């Protein structure tokens, strides 16, 4: 009990100490001793190799796939650099973005995307490191991507709503990442101490930021998937997230709704008065200003047609009269007089 | 984002081949990680920090880069000092809780902290003295799969483009009362990231069309490396030998 209390105090301290751009998901360079760093590289290697194999396979089918994976890595990099507030901890943390990449391109290729984002972050921002790359790939790439992908697919297979499935995928991708990071951290820094007690302490220390950020990441993943579903369902079909049949059903529903409302709306609209009649005319009448007939009533007879005819005649006459000015070639700058001649022309003038 | 772009181009270390720098850095990094003690790590950290100061890195960039590792060191140090060991060093009460600092935890915390600082400063020297494209060429020479290097190159190229897009969208959202409260902030952030993914899809289509028109067949030609200079080989051997000797002491 005393140790749990101490853990809570420590979690509070760590929560307060977290920097504005906290990178709790990344294990810092040099934090793991050599044997643990090598072990996590060995664990990450088969997943990474599988991801590269899948990447090359899909790149042969579609030449735009490799650039797309590169750009997804850039997006994951930017997402995981963006601080968002954690209200309960009073700090900022960042989402990991691997849930969404797992959903969109599959877990194997998502491991490669995460590895690319991690290498750039390790080299240039000191978020994570080259020696801890294996551990970071396992926690963010493997655990995050696989958790996100499997939960999304499992929920979609039992016909759960797209937004709910994406929310759960983002949530569990984040929590799985933070769980694995705790395992790696506790194993790496425990020294001679027992593993489990330290693991629980690390886990508790992460809770103030990572528990709410998981919920936030879930909400954001849901927002992203729903946005793609609404704006570009064809992309989700291309990435094999949804089937073309679903898009056809949505399209048919939209067309049906459009037809329905295009028939119903004008009839319904006639029952409603405009703001001019409902507000302005009413207030004017209350002030004793009754509406009068307009001086030129455009709604009677063929007056608009007559005005259009006269304007067309005048326009046609003007265009015909000035056609040379309108379509003739522009004069050279030298002949215009006001323009500066170029150095070659100036030399010729001086020569002559 | 400007952290990504800094490169000390006029420093003597920048003129050394990137393959040599990467190889030496990785060897010294392995030494740092496998060393049982503090002395060697503190020496590597001191040497690397001296080189960084010698490169005239702006202080703001230096602090930005090192602030996060410093805080991680602090958290790990607290974890170790309060929860690791048996031999009490000092005890005190906070909010009715009795906290004890342990001697073994203090030693382990210092060891881990010095290891992190050595590794971080070593990597900083490599990055500040080598442009990204040369680093990628060096990774290719070390037989890192070409597909992965291509993904890295695309990612690095488009980080700046997408970051700029993100900033434009962010400013537009702010001007339209986005991020006004917590709920709104969440929704705005979701739209921002979703828009970024849409942009990434569109950019990848445009990019691949442009590349196919210029003969892209799915593989990007990578850089040709120049032969090593004998002075570079001598210097790298000297550094590795001296470091190896110090590591062995």
Describe this structure in words.
The complex is a heterodimer of chains A (352) and B (249). Chain A is an all-alpha fold and 352 residues long. Chain A has two domains: 2-242, Arp2/3 complex 21 kDa subunit ARPC3 (Orthogonal Bundle); 302-352, no CATH class. Chain A is built from 15 helices and two strands. Chain A has helices at 2-17, 34-61, 65-79, 98-105, 107-124, 133-157, 162-189, 195-231, 233-238, 244-270, 275-286, 303-321, 323-327, 333-336, 343-351, and strands at residues 84-86, 91-93. Chain A has a two-stranded antiparallel ribbon with strand order 1-2. In chain A, a hairpin with a 4-residue loop joins strand 1 (84-86) and strand 2. The longest helix of chain A is centred in the middle third of the chain and has 37 residues, at 195-231. The radius of gyration of chain A is 33 Å and the shape is elongated. Chain B has 249 residues and is mostly helical. Chain B has two domains: 2-139 and 226-248, no CATH class; 145-213. Chain B has helices at 18-34, 39-54, 59-83, 103-128, 132-141, 146-175, 182-213, 230-248, and strands at residues 88-94, 97-102. Chain B has a two-stranded antiparallel ribbon. In chain B, a hairpin with a 2-residue loop joins strand 1 (88-94) and strand 2 (97-102). The chains are: A mainly alpha (352), B mainly alpha (249). Chains A and B meet through helix 1, helix 2, helix 3, helix 5 and helix 8 of A and helix 1, helix 3, strand 2, helix 4 and helix 6 of B.
């Amino acid at each position: 009990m005393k140790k749990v209390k101490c853990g809570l105090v420590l979690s509070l301290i760590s929560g307060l100490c977290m920097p504005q751009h906290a990178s709790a998901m990344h294990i810092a360079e040099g934090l793991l001793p050599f044997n643990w760093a090598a072990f996590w590289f060995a664990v990450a290697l088969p997943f990474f190799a599988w991801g590269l194999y899948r990447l090359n396979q899909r790149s042969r089918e579609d030449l735009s796939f490799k650039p797309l994976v590169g750009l997804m890595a850039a997006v994951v990099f930017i997402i995981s650099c963006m601080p968002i507030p954690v209200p309960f901890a009073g700090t900022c943390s960042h989402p990991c973005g691997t849930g969404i990449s797992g959903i969109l391109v599959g877990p194997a290729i998502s491991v490669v995307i995460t590895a690319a984002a991690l290498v750039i972050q390790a080299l240039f921002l000191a978020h994570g490191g080259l020696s801890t790359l294996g551990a970071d790939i396992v926690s963010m790439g493997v655990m995050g991507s696989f958790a996100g992908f499997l939960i999304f697919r499992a929920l979609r297979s039992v016909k759960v709503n797209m937004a709910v499935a994406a929310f759960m995928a983002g949530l569990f991708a984040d929590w799985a990442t933070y769980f694995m990071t705790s395992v790696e951290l506790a194993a790496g820094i425990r020294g001679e101490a027992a593993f489990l007690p330290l693991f629980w302490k690390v886990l508790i220390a992460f809770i103030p930021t990572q528990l709410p950020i998981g919920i936030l990441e879930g909400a954001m993943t849901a927002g992203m998937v729903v946005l793609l579903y609404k704006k570009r369902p064809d992309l989700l079909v291309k990435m094999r997230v949804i089937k073309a049949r679903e898009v056809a059903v949505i399209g048919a529903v939209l067309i049906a709704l459009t037809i329905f409302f295009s028939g119903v709306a004008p009839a319904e609209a006639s029952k409603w008065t405009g703001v001019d009649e409902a507000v302005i005319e009413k207030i004017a009448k209350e002030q004793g200003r009754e509406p009068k007939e307009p001086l030129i009533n455009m709604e009677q007879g063929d007056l608009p047609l007559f005005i259009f005819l006269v304007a067309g005649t005048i326009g046609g006459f003007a265009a015909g009269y000035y056609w040379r000015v309108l379509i003739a070639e522009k004069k050279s700058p030298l002949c215009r007089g006001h323009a500066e001649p170029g150095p070659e022309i100036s030399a010729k003038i001086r020569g002559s | 984002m400007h952290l990504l772009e800094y490169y000390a181009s006029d420093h003597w270390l920048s003129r050394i081949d990137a393959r040599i720098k990467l190889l030496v850095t990785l060897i010294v990094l392995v030494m740092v990680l496998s060393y049982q003690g503090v002395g060697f790590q503190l020496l590597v950290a001191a040497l690397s920090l001296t080189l960084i100061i010698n490169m005239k890195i702006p202080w703001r960039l230096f602090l930005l880069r090192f602030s996060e590792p410093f805080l991680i060191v602090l958290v790990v140090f607290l974890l170790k000092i309060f929860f690791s060991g048996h031999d009490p060093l000092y005890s005190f009460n906070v909010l009715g809780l009795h906290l004890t600092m342990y001697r073994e935890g203090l030693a382990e915390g210092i060891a881990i902290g010095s290891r992190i600082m050595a590794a971080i400063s070593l990597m900083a020297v490599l990055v500040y003295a080598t442009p990204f494209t040369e680093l990628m060429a060096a990774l290719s020479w070390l037989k890192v799969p070409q597909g992965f290097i291509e993904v890295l190159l695309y990612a690095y190229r488009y980080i700046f483009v997408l970051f700029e897009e993100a900033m434009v969208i962010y400013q537009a959202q702010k001007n339209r009362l986005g991020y006004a409260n917590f709920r709104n902030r969440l929704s705005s952030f979701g739209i921002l990231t979703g828009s970024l993914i849409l942009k990434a899809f569109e950019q990848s289509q445009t990019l691949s069309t442009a590349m196919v028109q210029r003969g892209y067949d799915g593989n990007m030609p990578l850089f040709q490396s120049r032969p090593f200079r004998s002075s570079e080989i001598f210097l790298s051997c000297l550094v590795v030998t001296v470091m190896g000797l110090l590591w062995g002491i």
